[in-house]
Structures are given as structure tokens and as C-alpha cells.
């Protein structure tokens, strides 16, 4: 394992503090349990007041701390360009957040050019913080994490994200392939947390046919450092638009990849 860059290590620590404060802001604005407190961008695609507030908070803090770094947000797009670029999803799992549920997170990743190098994912309602830095490992609440050791697909748990941008037959085809392997399908409503679950072994795989950079930027370093296998999301268009992602533990990755016809890197 190569030694991490001191500059990147410093940025990760700063990002962890900023995300923690942003998570506290999100918790203070969290709706009570019930019907969604949000506006609907499209079918099952929600936007809350908190999304904008948290993104603006993080954007302001990161500009002050690292004015030379680029910044990209889900709501605001690319605000600044730079070799190092922060990518934020202010609330990943907005449909859960809008109903007062707990499975949502604040996600902040760092890219060096087109390479994911660091990430912070905080799920404050779950009291969990994931961090990763290239060459320094992946962690959950400060403890090292690794991809699952499960080798038998019939013992595996696979999550697949749903999107209204995916035709129903395509979605059903992939779900059917997962079930034919004997794996247990799941859907939790947060792509970033699903990928983090693959990194820490709670899931054996995750698939999303259409997903964006801000959903995965912080999780990609987690997956790499935890030993998971991942499809070439960035190479396949994820840097500039939506793309498909598959992440899995290394023991079932090839089998799952072939079953759902999504190539690995």
C-alpha cells in the first residue's frame, strides 16, 4: 500500500469536519415521520429545502478552505474547475429523508483529475461515518472495513437501486437475474450508502443502471480501499453524465457481472 499524500490526508480531515457540521444542519432541518416534506422533480425524485442549504454550506466552507480546488454539487453543478475537485451529494436518499426516515447521508468525494482519491459519507441518523483515502484504507467510525467474504451467490445479499430513467423491462431483467443466482434482493433508497454497505460487507453487491457522479464519488475510494470490485463507472461516462455501476465483493463479482451483463473494470 502506497503512502497517502499529506495534502490529500489534510483535505480528508478537513472534509470530515465539514461533512459533520453539514450533517448536524441536515438533522436540524429533518422532517418528522410521515408523508414527504419535499417538492417532486419527477416521479419518485424528490428535492427538499435541506438539499440546497447543505450544499451551499459545504460549498462555502470548501471554497474558504481550498479556494484552488474545483467544486461540483448535485443541485448547483460545477461551480469551480480544478485538478482536485470536490463532488457533493448534500442529501443522498432524499426520498427517505423527506419522510423522516433514517437511511440517508451527506456525501463528499474528492477527485484528482479523473481518479477518486478520498471520500466522506456521514449518515447522522444512523450514527455512522465512512472515510477513505487512497493508499490509507477504508473505515467506518474509525475502524477498518473490508468487502464481504461471501462466496456462494445463494448466500449473497444484492441491492439494486430503482430509477424512473430505467425502462421497467430492464429493471425486471436485472432483478430476475439476481434472483436466479439465489441471491436476496434489497432496495434501500440511497446509492451512496448501498455502495458503502458493499465496502463494509453488509451487502455483497449493488447495481444501479442510471446513477450520477455525486451519488458515487465518495464511495468509489471506499470500495477500492475495502477490496471490492467495481465496473468502470467513470470510464463509461460517469465523469460527465449518468452511467451504470456494479460493485461487489471480489468472490462473487465475476458471477454477478456475467448474470446481469454489466462488465467489471
TrEMBL record:
GO terms for biological process: inositol metabolic process; phosphatidylinositol phosphate biosynthetic process; signal transduction. It comes from the Bacteria. Keywords: Hydrolase, Magnesium, Metal-binding. The keyword Metal-binding applies. GO terms for molecular function: inositol monophosphate 1-phosphatase activity; metal ion binding. Pfam families: Inositol_P. Mg(2+) binds at residues 74, 89, 91-92, 215. PROSITE patterns: IMP_1 (PS00629), IMP_2 (PS00630). Its cofactor is Mg(2+). Belongs to the inositol monophosphatase superfamily. This is Inositol monophosphatase. It comes from Acetobacter indonesiensis.
